[in-house]
Amino acid sequence: MRLTPGHEVMVRLVKYGREKLSYAATVVDDDGNHLAVRAPFAGDEAKDLGYIWFEPGDIFTEHYWRDRWYSVKEIVAADGVRKGWYCDIARPVTVEDGAVIADDLDLDLWRSADGTEILRLDEDEYAASGLAERDPAAAAQAEQALDTLERIAQDGFDQLLAF
């Protein structure tokens, strides 16, 4: 199911079979594989992640793929200044009943706007999740996706995110 630019869609972030976050977003584009949505920061209060603050007024342009094991979210502050990119390692996105469903696999990557900081995140959480034992094929995909994103992040995401 291809989404129509300009229409609203619900984004549902799932972890271990349970919805961890749900929010409305506007479809930016969808070519049948790569889709992008835009939404304001889904929190009511600022969130300090240690390397970046997510704040009310931030805008997230989120890129998902139906055949890739990651998503890339560009974060721009309310004043229009790009903060960076937050990448989730997740199963390929599905679209059901007009909702974008992303199944998070714990691993993440951060790239600062100026490219000086590229951080692999939550590797301890991932190891503790037991995915490698429960689903070795998914674990291999997740680990490969993190390595791929880290390589892409070296030069930036412009080419990856283009439609």
From TrEMBL:
<dbReference type="InterPro" id="IPR035930">
    <property type="entry name" value="FomD-like_sf"/>
</dbReference>
<dbReference type="InterPro" id="IPR007295">
    <property type="entry name" value="DUF402"/>
</dbReference>
<dbReference type="Pfam" id="PF04167">
    <property type="entry name" value="DUF402"/>
</dbReference>
<protein>
    <submittedName>
        <fullName>DUF402 domain-containing protein</fullName>
    </submittedName>
</protein>
<feature type="domain" description="DUF402">
    <location>
        <begin position="53"/>
        <end position="152"/>
    </location>
</feature>
<dbReference type="InterPro" id="IPR050212">
    <property type="entry name" value="Ntdp-like"/>
</dbReference>
<keyword id="KW-0378">Hydrolase</keyword>
